[in-house]
Structure formats: structure tokens, C-alpha cells
Amino acid sequence: MNRSSHGLGMLPLALILLLTPAQAWGSPSAEEFAVEDVHDEEWAPSPQQPRATPRLLRVVNGAASWYGPGFYGRQTASGERLRKGTFTAAHRTLPFGTRVRVTNLDNNRSVVVRINDRGPFRDHRVIDLAHGAASELRMMRAGEVPVRLEILP
Q: How far apart, in whole angstroms, are the C-alpha atoms of residue 118 and residue 96?
């Protein structure tokens, strides 16, 4: 007896994959960020602030993409217009105005961006960067690069 007589034996792999529930990819919520103590002078509290508790830094790794020219001039979720050369970004859950240090793990270049939009809405990406930030990270040709996000106080 051959496999074709069983019906499902010859079902194409693509159809099986379509019928299989997709993994829910998503940007980490604040609760999913790993929290690390920061021992860098840059993060030390000012003399007016008590040192009772250490400053904490939230960190997550994932993939970053960037907004292409087709998005220039469009309104972001925060109401701003997306302009070429800006150091802004889209994140699914971080509040608008949050500052994030993004490090390209392929070349260790870093940039600080401000969250002003929602997204990315594809796969494993954790942030979409505006043109200026993507250019500074030298990721324009790659389109998508592995990154580390550090949420700044």
C-alpha cells in the first residue's frame, strides 16, 4: 500500500504549515525585559538623589528593521510626521517618549532613539528604526539586524 492511498500522506508540506497554528511572535512587554544592575558611572544617581536602591536597566535582544522612504511624511501613532534622518523608532509596548539605546550586535554601533510609533508588526522584530538611527547603525543595506535594546531612565 502506498502513501497516496492514505489521503494525508501526500499533503504538501506548505499546506501542513498553513494549517499549523503559528507561533505568536511579539515584542516583549515590560515584564519580559531582563533586569540588570547597572554599575556604570553614567547611570549613577545625582547627588540630590538617595542611593538607597540601585538604578536598573532593562535589556532585550531581538531584530531591528527600519522605515523605508515610503513612510516619510506619514503620521506616526504619536501624531508626529516621520521625517528622513530622525532618531525615532516604533515599539509595540513602550510608552511614547521612552528613550532606548539600540546597539547593532553585528558591529557594536549604538544610537539613542525616542519611541514615537507602534510596531513592528512582523515576526521576531522588536523595534523599527527611523532613517537617521538606521543609518547611524549602518544597517541600511541589511534591512534587518540583531540588536540589543536598553531602556534608558
A: 9
DSSP state of 49: S
Please provide the DSSP assignment of 77-120 as one string.
Answer: TTSPBP-TT--EEE-SSSPTT-EEEEEETTT--EEEEEEEE---
Are the C-beta atoms of residues 93 and 30 closer than 8 Å to each other?
yes
Locate all alpha helices (DSSP H) within the chain, ordered by sequence: 13-19, 131-136
* Assessment of whether the complete model's pTM goes beyond 0.90: no
Q: Sort 49 into a burial class: Cβ within 10 Å, 0-12 / 13-18 / 19+.
A: exposed
- The pLDDT tens digits of the residues spanning 28-54 come to 443 344 444 444 444 445 555 544 334
CA distances from 89 to 36, 37, 82, 94, 111 (A): 23, 25, 10, 10, 11
